[in-house]
Batch of 2 targets.
Target 1
Amino acid sequence: MKLRIGTRGSRLALAQAREVADALSVTGVETELVTITTAGDRGADPASDPAGVKGLFVIEIVRALLVAAQRHRERSQAPHFGHEGVS
């Protein structure tokens, strides 16, 4: 299974995410970078967000990661139907 790493698409964010991915690969963890475009990346006005500039770049990433974590949790709790018990 691949570990998906969510990151913004800026050069700095991608460089930092690649550094983490490289460190994980040394330990045998396979990774995939997932670029998340935020309102800030799309040029939204900081005055339009109650959290200001930080909110424009952070809130959407936090939401995307929370959704991904919830989906993973739901999949891991779902019944697994295999061949065991089938005659």
Target 2
Amino acid sequence: MIAAYTGWIDKRNDPKKAVVFGNGQQLPESAMEELIAYMEKMQCVYRWNAGQFVIVDNSMTYHARQALMVEREECWLQLQKEQKQLRKE
């Protein structure tokens, strides 16, 4: 819901119109902004390492990912470095 409201901007998608009630009426912008603020306040952020994984029960929690703050090539090089280190251990 938050991803649809805060992203996916292109020719076909207007995020401000992406979240509606069952009757098609838009949710008030103030309600969405309040929800986003609450979710940001309550989030837990973890740094993942190579080889780690998690199983998420979607009926109990919500999940998301943060945008990468580095170039893809830099991320790929870091992953390769970490994998080599794991093989040594």
